[in-house]
Amino acid sequence: MAKKSKKQQDKGPGGTPATVALTAAGVTYTVHAYDHDPAHPSYGEEAAEAMGVSPDRVFKTLVADVDGIPTVAVVPVAGQLDLKALAAAVGGKRAAMADPALAERTTGYVRGGISPLGQRKRLRTVLDASASAHATICVSAGRRGLEVELAPDDLAKLTDAVLAPVGRA
Question: Are the beta carbons of 106 and 120 closer than 8 angstroms?
Fold first, then answer.
């Protein structure tokens, strides 16, 4: 696992729209890079294992369709997204996972590397309330094999996220 400070990440190769957004906002963050194994069955679990971080501190970014509106859910990789709870969190009636191609086009990221930060089109975002239990959490930095660690409050502020219990074990 390679860690780069904010300053090193800005000057070196591998910057993503997510790290650019974090730097522009003046947020403190740490980049964690690891070798992505395309054969691994779960992007999020792979990230947690590679970084040696508890899966309840590593969050996956999922794009769902809530009443026809693309909506981002950020939930721990150790659990699943509760679609009913997501719909309720944004005042919707029905939620379903978005088509992967639509999620990629809308966010500008590839599946397994979708970050809640620096998306092509800003989507409404819901961050699972369990994030508040941690000083820092990890989310995708916008590329498979690259994560950013930051305070959940900073993530919520930068994405205008609603905090709600949308993850389930």
Answer: yes
Q: What gap in Å lies between CA 104 and CA 100, rounded to an integer? A: 6
Q: Using alpha carbons only, what angle is made at residue 71 by residues 85 and 152, rounded to the nearest 5 degrees?
A: 75
Task: Give the pLDDT mean for 29-55.
Answer: 90
Q: Which residues have C-beta within 8 Å of that of residue 147, sequence separation ≥ 6?
A: 31, 32, 33, 34, 47, 51, 58, 138, 139, 140, 141
Token output for 76: 């721990």
Q: How far apart are the first and last CA of the chain?
A: 27
Q: What is the pLDDT of residue 3?
A: 41
Q: Rounded mean pLDDT of 138-153?
A: 96
H or E segment at 159? helix 152-159
Nearest C-alpha neighbor of 124 from the set 168, 83, 90? 90
Is the pTM here over 0.85, yes or no?
A: yes
